[in-house]
Design a protein that fits this description.
Shape: globular
CATH architecture: 3-Layer(aba) Sandwich
Number of strands: 9
Radius of gyration: 14 Å
Distance between the termini: 23 Å
Helix content: 25-40%
Strand order of the largest sheet: 2-1-5-4-3-8-9
CATH class: Alpha Beta
Strand content: 25-35%
Low-confidence stretches: none
Number of helices: 6
Largest sheet: 7 strands, mixed
Structural class: alpha+beta
Length: 169
C-alpha cells in the first residue's frame, strides 16, 4: 500500500472535458499522473463510485465547498479519482457542479487504485474491484499525508480533515 513519502504511481487517468481548450479536446482526455502532479500541490481524494450515496452527498460536495480554502492553503488542484469511465465521471461532474474546482478523474480499469494498493472488492455488491475511500495531500508527486477510511466509513478522508493537514504543512 502507498504510504507517506512514496511517489504517486505512474498511471494514466482519464478526464472528460466539456469545453475544448488548453490542449484538451472535448471528450475523454488522458491525464498522466506523473506529469500532471509535477511541481504542484494536489489534494487527491478517491472513492468507490460515482453517484453512490456517501460519495455524492458528502465526499465530493465537501471538496467543492472548500475549494477557496484549499487554494488559500497552497493547493494547486483538487483531484477526485474513482473506478468509473470518463463519461460517467463527466456526467457526475455536471451533476455535482464541480466546474473548475475538482478534476473528476476516471480510473476505468482500476490500474491506479491497484498501483496504490488502495482497492476495495465490492464484487458481492455487483460493483467489482473499486478504489478504497481515502484522501491524500501530494506535493511534487510525493505523498505528504494519507487518510484511508475503514470499509464503510467516512471519517478521515473528508475535505475538512485534508484541509487542516494542508494548512499545517
Amino acid at each position: 500500500m502507498i504510504k507517506v513519502g512514496d511517489t504517486l504511481p505512474a498511471a494514466t487517468l482519464m478526464e472528460y472535458v466539456e469545453v475544448e481548450g488548453g490542449g484538451c479536446s472535448i471528450g475523454p482526455n488522458p491525464v498522466d499522473v506523473t506529469k500532471s502532479s509535477k511541481g504542484k500541490t494536489i489534494a487527491l481524494f478517491a472513492l468507490p463510485g460515482a453517484f453512490t450515496p456517501t460519495c455524492s452527498a458528502k465526499h465530493v460536495p465537501g471538496y467543492v465547498a472548500h475549494y477557496d480554502a484549499f487554494k488559500a492553503a497552497g493547493v494547486d488542484e483538487i483531484w477526485c479519482a474513482s473506478v468509473n469511465d470518463a463519461f460517467v465521471m463527466g456526467a457526475w461532474a455536471r451533476d455535482q457542479k464541480t466546474g473548475y474546482k475538482v478534476r473528476m478523474l476516471a480510473d476505468g480499469s482500476a490500474a491506479f487504485a491497484q498501483a496504490t494498493g488502495l482497492t476495495l472488492d465490492l464484487s458481492s455488491k455487483g460493483m467489482g474491484l473499486r478504489s478504497n475511500r481515502y484522501s491524500m495531500l501530494v506535493k511534487d508527486g510525493k505523498v505528504v499525508t494519507l487518510n484511508v477510511e475503514a470499509p464503510g466509513k467516512f471519517e478521515v478522508s473528508d475535505a475538512a480533515t485534508l484541509l487542516a493537514q494542508a494548512k499545517a504543512v
